[in-house]
């Protein structure tokens, strides 16, 4: 069983690496090793809180926390935001029972094989690099959130304005370093083996800013819990 997929995200059957990160919503550290032998865990590796799409993905994962725990499955949210900035955000936007960790250096994303896509002017070699000419043609359609389909940068700006999210110097630094960081969710069994994944990597970028349905995620959790 392989420890790592150098050419892409970890896949079902791979052993997840141990990661040790600073806890946001409590004191101390959080290590994946702590869950091994005890419970399955859903690990959500998100971009920083500056990303409005990831803020929504985080809230969606948090909404499933109670249902996951009913099945004996824990849930961990990892964000590419420095600890103090992340703690400030969650103080004003609390999510009940959220277990979250800070990873501004994106160590966990690399360990799980999630690429940080390089943006170029017009050269695309997904998922290593993508041209801005391609990015500008990718439409985001979020009924109820956006007035209509918009390209990625415009949608991001619109949602940040809608949320009243003010980008700080820290946010801007994180965005500059990890602008192309792809996100993923990995469901691990009690032994730390990946059993289900959802990432932005497949489909040549068309999955960017998408997310699995709650039904898909809970169905996978039922299989792991069983």
UniProtKB/TrEMBL annotation:
Matching entries from Gene3D superfamilies are given as: Glutaredoxin
Pfam families for this protein: AhpC-TSA
Kindly give the InterPro entries that the UniProt entry links to this protein. AhpC/TSA, Thioredoxin-like_sf, Thioredoxin_domain
Q: Name the SUPFAM superfamilies on file.
A: Thioredoxin-like
Q: Which residues form the Thioredoxin domain?
A: 10-226
Q: What is this protein called?
A: Thioredoxin domain-containing protein
């Amino acid at each position: 069983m392989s420890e790592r997929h150098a050419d892409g995200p970890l896949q079902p059957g791979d052993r997840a690496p141990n990661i040790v990160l600073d806890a946001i919503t409590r004191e101390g550290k959080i290590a994946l090793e702590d869950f091994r032998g005890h419970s399955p865990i859903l690990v959500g590796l998100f971009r920083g809180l500056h990303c409005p799409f990831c803020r929504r993905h985080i809230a969606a994962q948090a909404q499933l926390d109670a249902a996951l725990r009913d099945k004996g499955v824990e849930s961990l949210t990892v964000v590419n935001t420095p600890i103090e900035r992340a703690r400030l955000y969650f103080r004003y936007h609390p999510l009940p029972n959220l277990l979250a960790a800070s990873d501004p250096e994106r160590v966990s994303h690399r360990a799980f094989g999630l690429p940080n896509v390089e943006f170029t002017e017009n050269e695309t070699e997904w998922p290593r690099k993508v041209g801005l000419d391609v990015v500008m043609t990718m439409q985001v359609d979020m009924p109820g959130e956006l007035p209509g389909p918009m390209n990625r940068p415009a949608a991001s700006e619109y949602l940040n304005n809608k949320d009243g999210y003010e980008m700080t110097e820290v946010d801007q630094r994180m965005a500059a370093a990890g602008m192309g960081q792809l996100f993923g969710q990995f469901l691990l069994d009690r032994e730390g083996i990946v059993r289900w994944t959802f990432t932005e990597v497949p489909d040549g970028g068309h999955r960017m800013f998408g997310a699995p349905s709650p039904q898909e995620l809970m169905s996978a959790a039922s299989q792991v819990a069983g």
